[in-house]
């Protein structure tokens, strides 16, 4: 029978906390950047102009149809050859996860806007609102409410995806765990702790999504 | 005064409206009837430019629009100004679900006309009183019955003080017991002298409330005359055939 011993993990708590801090910071950064880019791409993909649509949809599909790990490695090892400039592992991670997240965010945003009953736009037009006013006063308030749960879901996936950056030797939570396990020969305790830390951050978030879904699901 | 001059509309190869010309006097109540696919709803939607006509001219009150070669260049601002003076009531109400009843009615005056908030509020409350729903001002549309929703939609449209009210099958989506309350609000509006164009299947309402009935089929006006005369004693065979369905039912 295996004897669990978490005391050796406790000794390395500072390392784990550092890793956790980096994971959370990177996640926040890629969520914000991803949402901004995703919004731009969503607007582009709904544009009347073919060029905007083409650019946005190509961006979305490029990252939707390649595995994140491949994108991550490509940005770190391949892109520098192409542009002749060294990029840090952190920058490669930030760019690839942001762009990857952005393509999923933009599909959520596009679907949210398109999912609003066309009668709502017509009602706005009928009382003489301008297109911008209709978007701002009628479409977006309704679309956002519907988008929030899936956007949060995607953000949760984004945070989990940051664990891939350990392949580029970025000292995130998983990478620190790997280091500790090499030193104390307690992989079972270390990786269990790492998993529990991810869980501890994400479980409250998924509960919040559940709550929001039940709240807004019934209303309309 | 409304002038509809040689309005034409096609969707790809399908010609929906052919050379529609009508004059409607101020205060007149016109019922637009006809089988589905006759173009009556499209004509109504052309009148407030939800569907911009391909050709022809429109004049409603002080606003004029000419369509044709130049209609590709219709400016959003011009469309918005034109629509502010044409109230529209939809079959499916299309209330804004994220706004209270009062906010629904205030939205046009406040956002489109940039009216002062307090004034817009007073105006909106007055319109809600007119449709008998001032006690529902703070509720959300989802908690109203269909008939109440449609009355709020009417209040929202008249809050813009339009030159004409357009009703697009305003009672077709309602349970039968709720039709009456909406029709009586429409009747009151007519009695107050509002110019109204009503696309409807309610022949009794058309006969009683409208001054005039226009029968359309296949994108043309087939018959146009005083309401009682057209409904009780139609001249054209196509009008007779259409109305016989209703006489058979009732």
From TrEMBL, chain A:
<comment type="function">
    <text>Part of the ABC transporter complex GltIJKL involved in glutamate and aspartate uptake. Probably responsible for the translocation of the substrate across the membrane.</text>
</comment>
<dbReference type="InterPro" id="IPR000515">
    <property type="entry name" value="MetI-like"/>
</dbReference>
<feature type="domain" description="ABC transmembrane type-1">
    <location>
        <begin position="20"/>
        <end position="209"/>
    </location>
</feature>
<feature type="transmembrane region" description="Helical">
    <location>
        <begin position="20"/>
        <end position="43"/>
    </location>
</feature>
<dbReference type="GO" id="GO:0006865">
    <property type="term" value="P:amino acid transport"/>
</dbReference>
<comment type="function">
    <text>Part of the binding-protein-dependent transport system for glutamine; probably responsible for the translocation of the substrate across the membrane.</text>
</comment>
<dbReference type="InterPro" id="IPR010065">
    <property type="entry name" value="AA_ABC_transptr_permease_3TM"/>
</dbReference>
<comment type="similarity">
    <text>Belongs to the binding-protein-dependent transport system permease family. HisMQ subfamily.</text>
</comment>
<keyword id="KW-1003">Cell membrane</keyword>
<dbReference type="GO" id="GO:0022857">
    <property type="term" value="F:transmembrane transporter activity"/>
</dbReference>
<feature type="transmembrane region" description="Helical">
    <location>
        <begin position="190"/>
        <end position="209"/>
    </location>
</feature>
<comment type="subunit">
    <text>The complex is composed of two ATP-binding proteins (GltL), two transmembrane proteins (GltJ and GltK) and a solute-binding protein (GltI).</text>
</comment>
<dbReference type="InterPro" id="IPR043429">
    <property type="entry name" value="ArtM/GltK/GlnP/TcyL/YhdX-like"/>
</dbReference>
<keyword id="KW-0813">Transport</keyword>
<dbReference type="GO" id="GO:0043190">
    <property type="term" value="C:ATP-binding cassette (ABC) transporter complex"/>
</dbReference>
<keyword id="KW-1133">Transmembrane helix</keyword>
<protein>
    <recommendedName>
        <fullName>Glutamate/aspartate import permease protein GltK</fullName>
    </recommendedName>
</protein>
<keyword id="KW-0472">Membrane</keyword>
<dbReference type="Pfam" id="PF00528">
    <property type="entry name" value="BPD_transp_1"/>
</dbReference>
<feature type="transmembrane region" description="Helical">
    <location>
        <begin position="81"/>
        <end position="102"/>
    </location>
</feature>
<keyword id="KW-0029">Amino-acid transport</keyword>
<feature type="transmembrane region" description="Helical">
    <location>
        <begin position="50"/>
        <end position="75"/>
    </location>
</feature>
<dbReference type="InterPro" id="IPR035906">
    <property type="entry name" value="MetI-like_sf"/>
</dbReference>
<keyword id="KW-0812">Transmembrane</keyword>
């Amino acid at each position: 029978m295996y004897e669990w011993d978490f005391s050796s993990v406790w000794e390395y708590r500072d390392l784990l906390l550092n890793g956790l801090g980096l994971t959370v910071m990177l996640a926040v950064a890629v969520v914000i950047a991803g949402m901004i880019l995703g919004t731009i791409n969503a607007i582009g993909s709904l544009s009347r102009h073919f060029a905007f649509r083409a650019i946005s949809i190509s961006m979305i599909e490029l990252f939707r149809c390649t595995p994140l790990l491949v994108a991550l490695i490509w940005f770190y090892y391949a892109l520098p050859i192409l542009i002749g400039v060294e990029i840090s592992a952190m920058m490669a991670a930030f760019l690839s996860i942001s762009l990857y997240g952005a393509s999923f965010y933009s599909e959520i945003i596009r679907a949210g806007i398109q999912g609003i009953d066309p009668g709502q736009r017509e009602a706005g037009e009928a009382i003489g609102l301008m297109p911008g006013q209709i978007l701002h006063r009628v479409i977006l308030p309704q679309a956002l409410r519907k988008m929030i749960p899936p956007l949060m879901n995607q953000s949760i996936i984004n945070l989990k995806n940051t664990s891939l950056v350990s392949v580029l030797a970025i000292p995130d939570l998983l990478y620190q765990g790997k280091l500790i396990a090499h030193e104390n020969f307690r992989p079972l305790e270390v990786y269990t702790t790492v998993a529990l830390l991810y869980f501890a951050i994400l479980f409250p978030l998924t509960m919040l999504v559940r709550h929001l879904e039940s709240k807004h699901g019934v209303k309309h | 005064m409304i002038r509809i001059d040689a309005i034409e509309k096609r969707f790809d190869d399908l010609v929906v409206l052919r050379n529609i010309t009508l004059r409607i006097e101020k205060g007149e109540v016109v019922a637009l009837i006809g089988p589905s696919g006759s173009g009556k709803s499209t004509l109504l939607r052309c009148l407030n430019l939800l569907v911009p006509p391909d050709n022809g001219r429109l004049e409603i009150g002080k606003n004029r629009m000419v369509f044709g070669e130049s209609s590709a260049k219709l400016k959003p601002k011009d469309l918005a100004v034109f629509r502010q003076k044409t109230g529209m009531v939809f079959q499916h109400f299309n209330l804004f679900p994220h706004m209270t009843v009062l906010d629904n009615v205030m939205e046009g005056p406040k956002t489109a006309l940039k009216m002062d908030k307090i004034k817009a509020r007073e105006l909106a409350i007055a319109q809600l009183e007119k449709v008998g729903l001032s006690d529902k001002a703070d509720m959300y549309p989802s908690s109203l019955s269909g008939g109440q929703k449609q009355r709020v939609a009417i209040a929202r449209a008249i809050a813009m003080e339009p030159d004409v009210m357009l009703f697009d099958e305003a009672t077709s989506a309602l349970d039968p017991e709720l039709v009456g309350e909406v029709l009586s609000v429409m009747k009151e509006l007519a009695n107050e002298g509002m110019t109204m164009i009503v696309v409807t299947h309610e022949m009794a309402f058309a006969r009683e409330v409208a001054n005039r009935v226009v029968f359309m089929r296949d994108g043309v006006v087939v018959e146009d005359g005083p309401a009682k005369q057209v409904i009780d004693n139609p001249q054209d065979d196509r009008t007779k055939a259409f109305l016989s369905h209703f006489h058979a039912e009732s």
